[in-house]
Amino acid sequence: MPLPALIHRISPTVWELPPSHKKGMRVPARFVASRSLLERMDDGVFAQTANVACLPGILKYAWCMPDGHWGYGFPIGGVAAMDPESGVISPGGIGFDINCGMRLIRTNLTEDEVRPRIRELVDLLFARIPTGVGCSGTVKMTRSGFRDVLEKGSRWCLKNGYAWPEDLTMTEEEGCYAGADAAACSEKAIERGYDQLGTAGSGNHYCEVQVVRPENVFDPGTARSFGITLPNQIFVMFHCGSRGFGHQVATDSLNAFLKVMTPKYGIHLDDRELACAPFRSPEGQAYHKAMKCAVNMGFANRQVITHRIREAFSVVFRRSPEDLDMRMVYDVAHNTAKLERHAIDGAMREVLVHRKGATRAFPPGMAGIPDAYRETGQPVIIGGSMETGSYLLVAEKGAADTFYTTAHGSGRTMSRHEAKKRVRGKALLDGMAERGIYVRTDSYGGLAEEAGLAYKDIDEIAETTEAAGLSRRVAKMIPLGNIKG
User: Fold this and answer.
1) Does the annotation count 69 as an active-site position?
2) CA distance 74 to 71
């Protein structure tokens, strides 16, 4: 497809659509991409990023990361910062899976120790981490207890034996957004989420056993700081979020915003999927409090899964998780809206940063990252397809213009429906087994949706974020085994 007529190059990896591209744009729309990635972005990415640039109170630029593709309202990979006094909050800028995010756990095992037992290990992970649409977790929870989880996040997990103290340190915001208020959440949202703690769900959610081979370490010094200390060392990476609870919070808020956006606040937008309300309005504040609950659910969900992963490794290798050195490298969200301080027109000020399918990437010395990473910068975890591998990167100082944000994954090249037309799930499963990747799944159809051909080249995505100065490659992780919903 031809590129938009007015798009022009700002730097080798940044492209801009000026406000004259579309009536109503308040700021330029910018895209982080190589030329080849830009040329393969779908039309919806350009249209949606331009629509985001029309939102009231948006500051500097509407951004799309190199893994960008069409989403609900915002593109996946979309980033926008709003003036919290005059701007809006939009659930479409955060997504339905609030606090979908990535977590990486290290071990002191090597490929030689794990590969002979990969089937046993993956089978046990598959048994202990429920997957699939609507699956329930193994944590017995009351609705009242779940409200406690929503307001405390990972702190609830620590109190109830599902976390090590240091896990919270290695989690964004220590696993709890302050100001979450369970009273802002509907009974339907509570009903959908209270029994889903510790579940991976479906879609592109997964848990993967990976190896870091010496030839895939790009920055040995930073790699050591992140716990990569052995040749062919084993890591576990997983990706999931706030499950049905977060989806219902987003749905409730979209419906509420559509009722007031134009009649009460006089906001007119071309795309109703960008339904929004002034951030300081009663509706905007209610959504933000509920969204924080979903963020905390996402952190707690990944923390319980961490506990199950440690249990499974301990059973298979007959050593304690402590003896296996199963410490967290980091946990970072990629579907949130958060008040942060950034430089706007030369002055530091508070802004509301929407990130949807985009990773916070705070550089060395910036407040909000663990002391252990103060000199290196924050770890960035970019998940690729189950066939091609994933990346561990480190945040760079050059990301100031993107509000210290980088990519979150490979980014789709085709719809799930198209992928299922082209790929047979059973054949894919067998083919990966022949290539040394053992996979367990609830659904061959769901597996086909996640085939490698449905995603962009993860190497090109990681290289582009590095060339743009957003995040620098530390190591590439290669899959050995995977469980999928």
Assistant:
1) no
2) 6
pTM confidence score: 0.97
Three-state SS sequence of the chain: CCCCCCCEEEECCEEEECHHHCCCCCCCEEEECCHHHHHCCCHHHHHHHHHHCCCCCEEEEEEEEEEEECCCCCCEEEEEEECCCCCEECHHHCCCCCCCEEEEEEEEEEHHHHHHHHHHHHHHHHHHCCECCCCCCCCCCCHHHHHHHHHHCHHHHHHCCCCCHHHHHCEHHHHCCCCCCHHHCCHHHHHHHCCCCCCCECCCCEEEEEEECHHHECCHHHHHHCCCCCCCEEEEEEEECCHHHHHHHHHHHHHHHHHHCCCCCCCCCCCHHHCCEECCCHHHHHHHHHHHHHHHHHHHHHHHHHHHHHHHHHHHHCCCCCCCCCCEEEEEECEEEEEEEEEECCEEEEEEEEEECCEECCCCCCCCCCHHHCCCCCEEEEECCCCCCEEEEEECHHHHHHCCEECCECCECCCHHHHHHHCCHHHHHHHHHHCCCEEEECCHHHHHHCCHHHECCHHHHHHHHHHCCCEEEEEEEEEEEEEEC
The pLDDT tens digits for 139-180 are 999 999 999 999 999 999 999 999 999 999 999 999 999 999
Catalytic residue among 307, 334, 342, 408: 408
Q: Express each pLDDT in 464-484 by its tens digit.
A: 999 999 999 999 999 999 998
Predicted local distance difference test score (pLDDT) of residue 156: 98
